[in-house]
């Protein structure tokens, strides 16, 4: 895991993750988005739910993983709604897994 991502998770800081997620490095972007689920705040939750509609399949997958990691019960409804729109079966599977995590 990238050191900046690890530090943001340890400190529970959203802004460093957002900066990485908005950057140009695709691998770092995906890692930062998935990590947002481990930073429990409204900004992380909002970023992840918005990312479920991103044109990039990798970003949508990372958002589903992040929401699952958050275990936030509110995420269930967003995942359920977006899963109805999703055409990629691999992403739908990640969304199903994330929904199960949100119900634990």
Could you tell me the CATH topology label. Leucine-rich Repeat Variant
Q: What share of residues is helical?
A: over 70%
The CATH homologous superfamily is termed Leucine-rich Repeat Variant
- Shape call: globular
What attributes does this structure have?
104 residues; mainly alpha; 73% helix
In short:
The protein is built from 7 helices and no strands. By secondary structure, it is mainly α.
Description:
The protein is mostly helical and 104 residues long. It has one domain: Leucine-rich Repeat Variant (Alpha Horseshoe). It contains 7 helices and no strands. It has helices at 3-11, 14-21, 26-35, 42-51, 57-70, 75-85, 89-102. Helix 1 packs antiparallel against helix 2 and helix 5 (57-70) runs parallel beside helix 7 (89-102). The longest helix has 14 residues, at 57-70. It is globular and about 35 Å long.
Secondary-structure blueprint:
Blueprint: H1 3-11, H2 14-21, H3 26-35, H4 42-51, H5 57-70, H6 75-85, H7 89-102
Helix pairs in contact: 1-2, 2-3, 3-5, 4-5, 5-7, 6-7
């Amino acid at each position: 895991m990238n050191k900046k991502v690890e530090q943001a998770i340890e400190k529970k800081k959203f802004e460093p993750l957002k900066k990485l997620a908005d950057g140009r490095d695709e691998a770092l972007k995906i890692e930062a988005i998935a990590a947002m689920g481990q930073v429990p705040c409204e900004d992380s939750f909002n970023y992840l739910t918005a990312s479920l509609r991103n044109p990039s399949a990798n970003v949508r997958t990372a958002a589903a993983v992040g929401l699952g990691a958050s275990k936030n019960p509110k995420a269930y409804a967003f995942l359920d709604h977006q899963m109805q729109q999703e055409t990629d079966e691999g992403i739908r599977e990640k969304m199903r897994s994330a929904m199960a995590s949100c119900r634990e």
